[in-house]
Amino acid sequence: MSDDATSGARFQCLKAAAKRASANAWSPHSGFQVGAAVSTPGGEPVAACNVESDSYGLTQCAERNAIAAAIAAGTRPGEIDALLIYVPGETPLPPCGGCRQWMVELLSPGATITSCCDGDQALGWSRDDLLPGAFRIR
Q1: Higher per-residue pLDDT: 101 or 6
Q2: pLDDT score of 3 more than 60
Q3: What is the secondary structure of 122-135 as a DSSP string?
Q4: Cα torsion through 76, 13, 52, 87, rounded to 10
Q5: Mind giving me the DSSP string for the chain?
Q6: Does residue 134 register a pLDDT over 90?
Q7: Structural domains in the chain?
Q8: 116 in Cβ contact with 94 (< 8 Å)
Q9: Sheet architecture: strand order including 35-39
């Protein structure tokens, strides 16, 4: 990811929101306090954190929680044009497969996804690059 993509005002705003949300994560199993923030048409970021369950399949990732919170607040599927994932530490991590499927279905076609951490390193993808050949029924 280029320095320009990670130095802009929108990136900084989304990172700050995701980092704040990560402090509220419930992650007794993985130890990863992940935060995510999405950019909505109104300009205000919507952020969320991961919430784990003893029944791993019921765990909710920060990315899916942020998308769901934005939709619950009135953002329509296809209107989210950016999603940022924040993971504490020195290594950004890619989203899981379930989150990738949600992103393909609910983010705008031109949406960007960025994963960052406390260090300067960041990873970035377009929505469609994350899940080639995604499952779609419509």
Answers
A1: 101
A2: no
A3: EEEEEHHHHSTT--
A4: 130
A5: --HHHHHSHHHHHHHHHHHHHHTT-B-TTT----EEEEE-TTS-EEEEE-B--SSGGG-B-HHHHHHHHHHHTTPPTT-EEEEEEE-SSS---PPPHHHHHHHHHHEEEEEEEEEE-SSS-EEEEEHHHHSTT-----
A6: no
A7: 3-130 (3.40.140.10)
A8: no
A9: 45-49, 35-39, 80-86, 107-116, 122-126
| Short-list 110, 100, 95, 44, CA closest to 74 | 44
Tell me which amino acid residue 98 is.
Answer: G
Tokens representing residue 21 in the block? 């949300």
Distance (Å, whole) CA 5 – CA 12: 10
Q: Which residues are catalytically annotated? A: 63
pLDDT digits (tens, 9 = 90+) for 4-32: 456 699 999 999 999 999 999 999 999 99
